[in-house]
Amino acid sequence: MQAHLPNDMSTEISKIQNLIQDELQLVERMLTNKNQSTVDLANSVSSHLIQSAGKRLRPMLVIFSALAVGYDDAENIHLDLACIIELIHSATLLHDDVIDNSSQRRHQKTAHLLWGNTASILSGDLLYAKAFRMIAEIDSPAILYVLAHATEKIVEGELEHLNCRRKISTSKLTYLNVISAKTAKLFSVATHLGAMLNPSVDCADAMSEYGHHLGIIFQIMDDILDIEAPESLGKPQGQDVMEGKPTLPLILAYEFSSTEDQASLDALFSNPETRLADIQPYIDKTNALALSRQEAEISGRLAKDCLLTLPDSPYKQALSDLVDFALLRQH
């Protein structure tokens, strides 16, 4: 698939965001307001994460999808949904960092290192509660069902992911099922909800699929960057190996290794003392990074095919550009 983004990826994502700059600013204000609690500790923990603003990809997807199907309503439900999605995402990050015992996120110490596991978990629960209070205020059974079902699937994905810990023999199918639930589900829900806001344009299912494929790309590229990106990007290189996560490059390295090498990889990956340098020769020998990129590119083509159901607009183009950004990003 031919991508056309410039080398400066930060500039490119900024150009995409500028198209909905006003909407994103309103979402930021909403996040700040909704994050307020009567408990100072909860404010400190959740603000630490929310105010270290990431790319806000999931809110962007809600907004772009809504505008791409022609949503135009003074109630601005798409902004409420964008805020809800980010609150849920932030809650999952607080929980994930405790589960993985992660030390850094977005160049900062993780909340559980600063305030402890209990405070992080409870603050994540509070963000979930705030999100579902906002959902109740929208008063739409269809939206409630989509978000409740998504939350259920995300938790199931996390549990299945735990079941795969330190099992490098995990199949590619199991891996894809896990990341479909754990990572791609919120992307899929974001684009699905945006498209639902204009029921006269029949593309909610296609947009849900677009979000799914985009989420798969982001996770695969995260897996690749864990192996080849410098530590200056805010995450220690080889962290997935240290945590015993069977990522796609590791799974493919195992799949395409000899029986003898598979036995060595099994032993290495089950050992908490193993580091990326110990497994790197097997990754190189099997060309696992290139094979992983091919999987991401397949998802990229499928994502762009889903956009064919949309009428042409700058918002449709932005959704297409996000696919290219995901495939080419370096952080």
Describe it for me?
The protein has 331 residues and is mainly α. The protein is built from 17 helices and 2 strands. Strands 1-2 form a two-stranded antiparallel ribbon. Strand 1 (104-105) and strand 2 form a beta hairpin. It starts with 8 loop residues before the first helix and ends with a helix. 43% of the residues are buried.
Q: Could you give a short description of this structure?
A:
It contains 17 helices and two strands.
- Gross morphology is globular
Major β-sheet strand ordering:
1-2
Along the chain, the helix and strand elements come as HHHHHEEHHHHHHHHHHHH
Radius of gyration: 20 Å
Main sheet?
A: 2 strands, antiparallel
Helices, by number, come to 17
Q: Classify the helix fraction into a percent range.
A: over 70%
Q: In percent terms, what proportion of residues is strand?
A: under 5%
Distance between the termini: 21 Å
Low-confidence stretches: 1-7
Q: Roughly what is the average pLDDT, rounded to an integer?
A: 91
Total number of β-strand segments? 2
What class do helices, strands and sheet pairing give? mainly alpha
Please render the helix and strand layout as text:
Blueprint: H1 9-18, H2 21-34, H3 40-50, H4 57-68, H5 77-100, E1 104-105, E2 108-109, H6 111-115, H7 117-138, H8 141-163, H9 172-182, H10 184-196, H11 204-228, H12 239-243, H13 248-255, H14 259-269, H15 276-286, H16 288-306, H17 314-328
Antiparallel strand pairs: 1-2
Helix pairs in contact: 1-17, 2-5, 3-7, 4-5, 4-10, 4-17, 5-7, 5-10, 8-9, 8-10, 10-11, 11-16, 11-17, 13-15, 13-16, 16-17
